Amino acid sequence: MCGIVGYLGHRQAVPIVVAGLKRLEYRGYDSVGIAMIGDGKVKAIKTAGKVAEIEALVAADRGAASVCIGHTRWATHGEPSDVNAHPHLDCHNHIAVIHNGIIENYSVLKKKLVDSGHFFRSSTDTEVLAHLIEELSRWSKGLEEAVRQALQQVQGTYGVVVISDREPDTLIAARHGSPLVIGHGEGEYYIASDASAIAEHTRRVSYLDDGELAVITRQGMRAKTLGDVETTKSIQELAFDLARIERGGYDHFMLKEIYEQPETIRDAMRGRLLAADGEVKLGGLEHVRDRLVGARRIILVGCGTSWHAALVGEYMIEHIAKSPVEVEYASEFRYRSPVLSANDVVFLISQSGETADTLAAMREAKSKGAAALGIVNVVGSTIARESEGGVYIHAGPEIGVASTKAFTSQLTVLALIALYLARARGISSEDCRVLAQELQSLPTKVSYLLQVSGRVKELASEFKDARNFLYLGRGANYPVALEGALKLKEVSYIHAEGYPAAEMKHGPIALIDENMPVVFLAPKDALYDKVVNNIHEVRARRGRIIAVANEDDREIEQIAEFVLRVPRTYGFFGPIINVIPLQLLAYYIAIARGVDVDQPRNLAKSVTVE
Ligand code: F6R
Fold this sequence. Notes:
By secondary structure, this protein is an alpha/beta fold. The chain folds into 3 domains: 3-240, 4-Layer Sandwich (Glutamine Phosphoribosylpyrophosphate, subunit 1, domain 1); 246-440, Glucose-6-phosphate isomerase like protein, domain 1 (Rossmann fold, 3-Layer(aba) Sandwich), CATH 3.40.50.10490; 453-597, Rossmann fold, CATH 3.40.50.10490. Helices cover 36% and strands 24% of the residues. The protein contains 21 helices and 27 strands. Strands 3-2-4-1-10-9-11-15 form an 8-stranded antiparallel sheet, covered by helices on one side. A 7-stranded antiparallel sheet has the order 5-6-7-8-12-13-14. A 5-stranded parallel sheet has the order 19-18-20-21-22, sandwiched between helices. Strand 23, helix 18 and strand 24 form a beta-alpha-beta unit. It is globular and about 75 Å long. The site of fructose -6-phosphate has 15 residues, from helix 10 and helix 18.
């Protein structure tokens, strides 16, 4: 959620850290701060607001410090304010701490520390760590030992970095539940919660594992467990295209990422879909092929947009491969004591690969003997590393807080899995070839759709002042309705609900009047006539109808006030196309309402706390 950056080396550290924070701002953006060691003292600068605020504060005096840590915050405990911004310091400003995660037992620890004379400035859970390390430093042999002892007393999750002016050439980092990546330069080290913050400086990285602590000095890096046992960290080469984390001429990352979809959908299939042969190759599933094919059930688990992708995946896999599928919210699955066995296969769907609930669901599945496989975007993320295999979606960095291209790439990978399984379960290569060729045609169709979608802007200005929206769809387009509503809520702050179209009669129909825009997913698939009936029901109650319909559908014009045209495809692949006008509608309504769509209020990319 929050973003962490640190630097220790021979260059001016402050500009490096501030530039890293800018790259990470999409992870949290309610307050920001840095701490450096200059002239033998810890100096912290922090403020409520975005990274631009800190940039202005350090512009005049970047200092000569060659050690600096920085943090961009998404508030958990304590409102966004100057004082609650990280870094947090001990009583005498010798120690500075930045932290992602939640210290669950902070109130107990805080009480003890206050009783022994510590003076707290903020209402955060993190400040407890700075004082606890200060307290333990009195009796321990040095910073490393004090940090280790402090973390042994902590319950909760953390990715944490600590500096102290008593050991001015040391960075201590530790991880339990919140990711940290260490970048290796020439006589310099970087640390970050997300590789995008450091990729411009080095591609040589190692990832800390849960329960590990790293001691970084100019001489090198040592990793240990919290029990003080040395661990070996391999250095990996980061494959990263920096252009993908620039806006590249677009006003917002969200728009850029919507327009990247022809390419990202193609990338998700590249080298995997052998359309002419009617075959699908998924190397990350080959070693579990038999388990997958013979699975008692396949369980798709995710949160938010990734959960919506799972719902579409259920329709695709059950229809195409005839394998039984269940879909679960990660947050419910992990606490429900799910009955699992070695006959179950669990797919964890996550753009970031770091979502706390999805991570916990993976560990739950593994501990019960099920095969735990990832459908993940971020290479080297925790789910990617800890799962027993899986499929990367290869969408490239997704910076816009509202997920767009990751969703269509997740759906593309789920379609590939459906075909892979179907083939293994006996559908003919000829039947598979027909579907594979249709899948292969999607990038071109999406590209065309994006070229002709000017109508969406007009619609956005017509409906920008609506107070509510209803999104309705059937079959595989029901999750698309959920996703359309989620996108609108996230970036425009308009209340929106998604429903299966037939469920409308069982309650939501009471909401319909002449002020209610209702978006219908109405492609010409097997359920088209049913959807048309539902449109008539809304029309009879004077609801304002917006239909997402195929280009050759003339009937729909008679009953819908607005029609957003989409190319026709095979019904179960339709969601990959049909969601795109809804992404654009949410984007343009948000713009018309003056919202910063890349950083909408209260949201953060990568939800690493429960
Ligand atoms: C919505 C959105 C979130 C994420 C959810 C899961 O636009 O981005 O709902 O989909 O937080 O995140 P990942 O996929 O990273 O596990």
